[in-house]
Design a protein that fits this description.
There is one protein chain. The chain is of the alpha+beta class. It contains 10 helices and 9 strands. It has helices at residues 5-20, 52-60, 68-74, 116-120, 146-150, 175-180, 186-190, 201-214, 255-269, 272-289; strands at 38-43, 90-94, 103-107, 126-128, 134-136, 157-158, 168-169, 196-200, 234-237. The strands form 4 sheets. It has a 3-stranded mixed β-sheet. A two-stranded antiparallel sheet has the order 2-3. Strand 2 (90-94) and strand 3 form a beta hairpin. Helix 1 packs across helix 9. The longest helix is centred in the last third of the chain and has 18 residues, at 272-289.
Length: 294
């Protein structure tokens, strides 16, 4: 962790300044077009549950892994598995009332256009980048885990078993590959069935609409993520509503819209809650320092 005591006090000072500013000065995320943000379209009707995307995710992130053959031999686990600190994406199997084979669906961070996790983070450790990914800066994180509570998809996880400087963990949309090297995410590159399509959000929405129009009998007429939670960079097509495949039913308004209004109202009108934020943040920062870095 690179944030020292001086940096932390500066952060608290900025938060304190927010309490003294008029409501308009604490603006939420500036509205911008996300058409050219990169993202992924998941056509779950082509997913066969091979779980090669799980293997590629672990391999790309340098995590403990099994031989790729073991994933196929184990099969896709039934039920609503969730990503964890050691696996950023999962493929789940759900009963298929229209056939013998189950319905498979991949799940990971959705990289929301207006991410609630970033809105809830009091030190700016999470932010929506201009290219599309929601990026996490571990050097800023104080371990408050507000992001875990705020996420409507319950995605961020925490390295509870890491004694020194535990991190919040989630899919990064292969930030180094996509943003720095111009490559596709690891999961997209390895998918043998072509159910993962990488491109700009505008391209993916057009492509998804075209697929529905060409084969209306194949798809439920809805693109999940186009509007849910204010829109997401991961978009989904399926044969049934995604809410029957483990995805939450969400409003079109981004959750961060509400949390920021509440936080900004508190900052403007009340000092005691502001002091509580500072106190809690200070305690968590000191707890992390007990790892022996200073």
């Amino acid at each position: 962790m690179t944030q020292d005591r001086r940096d932390f006090l500066k952060t608290l000072g900025l938060v304190g300044l927010g309490g003294a500013l008029p409501s308009g000065a604490l603006a939420s995320h500036a509205t911008r077009s996300h058409d050219q943000d990169v993202g992924v379209l998941v056509d779950s009707t082509y997913c066969v549950g091979c779980r090669k995307c799980e293997w590629a995710c672990r391999d790309s992130n340098g995590m403990d892994n099994l031989p790729i053959e073991d994933y196929a031999n184990a099969g896709t686990l039934p039920g609503a598995r969730r990503p964890d600190a050691g696996l950023h994406t999962v493929v789940n199997a759900y009963p298929n009332p229209d056939g013998e084979n189950p319905r498979f669906v991949k799940f990971q961070c959705m990289h929301c256009l207006e991410p609630a996790c970033a809105s809830a983070c009091i030190v700016g450790a999470l932010k929506k980048t201009d290219g599309g990914p929601v990026h996490y800066d571990a050097s800023k994180c104080i371990g408050c885990r507000y992001c875990m509570v705020a996420c409507p998809f319950q995605i961020p996880t925490y390295e509870y078993d890491r004694a020194l400087a535990p991190r919040v963990m989630k899919c990064t949309l292969c930030f180094e590959r996509t943003m720095e090297r111009g490559e596709r995410p690891a999961c997209v590159s390895i998918c043998p069935e072509g159910c993962l399509i990488y491109g700009t959000r505008e391209e993916l929405l057009d492509y998804a609409r075209a697929r529905i129009a060409q084969k209306p009998e194949r798809y439920h007429d809805h693109i999940y993520g186009e509007h849910e939670a204010g829109g997401t960079s991961w978009l989904y097509l399926a044969a049934a509503p995604l809410t029957t495949l483990g995805f939450p039913e969400l409003e079109d308004v981004a959750p961060g819209h509400y949390t920021e209004r509440v936080q900004h109202g508190v900052f403007k009108n009340f000092f005691p809650p502001l002091a509580l934020y500072a106190l809690l943040g200070g305690i968590m920062w000191l707890n992390k320092r007990q790892g022996g870095e200073e």
